[in-house]
Known about the structure:
By secondary structure, the protein is of the alpha+beta class.
Amino acid sequence: MILSLLLAAATPKLPTWEAKPPPGTTEAAVMAPVSAMLAGIGARDGAAILAQAKAEGGLTAVVENADGTRAIRRRSWAEFAAGIKPGPERYEERITDPAIEVDGDIAMVWSPYLFLIDGKVHHCGVDHFDLVRENGAWKVLSITWSQRTTGCGAAQ
C-alpha cells in the first residue's frame, strides 16, 4: 500500500485533454464549428468567428461582478466580432469534456471553460452553444455563458 502511494506521488501529472467525439460522428460535426469559433477567438479573428455563426443569433453573458452582483450582457454576432481585434496578448479559451446533445437539425454543446490571456486564467464559467443544421452544415446560432473570476483553478 505504501509503495503504491509513493509511486503515485512520484508519477508526473498527465497533461489535460479535451474530450472529443470520434471523427465521422454527428457529434464531431457539431463540434467542428464550435472548435473553429474558439480557434477564431484565439487568432483574434472576427471574420473566422462570423464564418461559424448564424447571423440572426447572438451572444449572452451572465457576468459575476466583484461585488457578487450579476450583469447580463447581450450582443449580436456583428458587435462581438467587431470587438475582436488584433493585439499583443494571446487569447485561449479551453473547454473540457463537452456534453453534446443532438435532435435532428438542432444541437447544443455545454462545457466548463477557462479563458486565458497570455497563458494565465482571466476568467471561467460554463459555455452553452446552440447550433442549427441548415443545408447539411452546422452553424452556431447562439452562445450563452457564465463568467466569473473566482473558483477557476489553474490552467493546466
